[in-house]
Amino acid sequence: MRLHNKTVLVTGVSGTAGDKIAVRCLREGAEVRGLIREETHIALCHKLGITPVFGDLTNEEDMRAALQDVHLVFHAAAYLGGDQVIAEQSNIRGVESLVKAAIAAGVERLVHISTVSVYGHFEGEVKLDEAHELAYGHAEVYIATKCESERRVRDAISQGLQSVILRPGVICSESKSHWGDQLVRKLAEAEEITWIHPDDMTPWVHGDNLAEMCVLAATHPAAVNQTYHALDGNYPESEFTMRIGRAMNKKFVIPEGDAIRTMYSHTKIRDQLGYCPTITFEETVFRLEEQARRI
Q: In Å, how far from its chain's centre is CA 37?
């Protein structure tokens, strides 16, 4: 499958990944629509070169209208906060509404952006692959509702909707990223950095690389109904956050307790889909260090 001349709908275009997915699809020759709820996001869609489509994920009528003549869907929208009601509405009911409408519309493939957080938290050194069980019913709202959103996607697969689940970790980029430019500002505002252990492992992916993975997931025949860790690697914080902080001469106070040593395999997407990063970890950290020095 190719994206050229396909019509795609991207949710979450105002977030960390959605805009990058939209731009990457445009480069493939797709007609791209961005699902938005607020008029303030119209200008963003025009800047990206995509068509704004108004709709609420939880409204089935809105979804049916938004998916008219759509071939592929990239679902990048999610609620990351701790409000139980909002999380269930966005991350569970929204996915239910989206996949139901996608099945009815005859969408060719859905790419669902999940998270490696669906496994929960672990102590000690742990290595996980995509087959590891999910943390259903986890005490943290985000984890629990993202697990349930994956369940809804798998239910849709059983009803004939071709789908791919991507599980990124820390989505980093030089702009609009909690783990990029916003991290630089957070470190700049702190007198001391007290929450980072140098041996903590960070499951890292650049936002543009995630967009590349989305295109592969949407077009490669081997990707159908598969789940992939969407990562470029697992990196210690000594090579990531601490490097950025040192660029501002920040003082680090190592927290008590053991380091977070969970690591996630990232070979499946390379072996099956031929993924290769377009932007490296090293060049990204270098640019974030430059941002830090300018503050």
A: 19
State which H helix or E strand residue 52 sits in. strand 51-54
Q: Which single residue is written with the structure tokens 């640019």?
A: 287
Distance of CA 163 to the CA centre of its chain: 16
For the segment(s) 7-171+204-230, the CATH number from 3.40.1360.10, 3.40.50.300, 3.30.70.270, 3.40.50.720 is 3.40.50.720
Q: What are the extents of the domains in the chain?
A: 7-171+204-230, 172-203+233-261+279-294
- The per-residue pLDDT for 38 is 87
pLDDT tens string 181-223: 999 999 999 999 999 999 999 999 999 999 999 999 999 999 9
Answer for the pair 217, 156: CB distance below 8 angstroms, yes or no: no
Q: Any idea of the CA torsion for 189, 286, 127, 157, to the nearest 10 degrees?
A: 90
Query: For 113, what's the count of Cα atoms within 13 Å in the CB-facing half-sphere?
Result: 30
Asked if 260 and 234 count as a contact pair (C-beta separation under 8 A), the reply is no
**DSSP secondary structure string for all residues of 114-133:** --GGGG---SSEEEE-TTSP
Token duo for residue 222: 């081997």
Burial degree of 213 (CB within 10 A; 0-12, 13-18, 19+) = buried
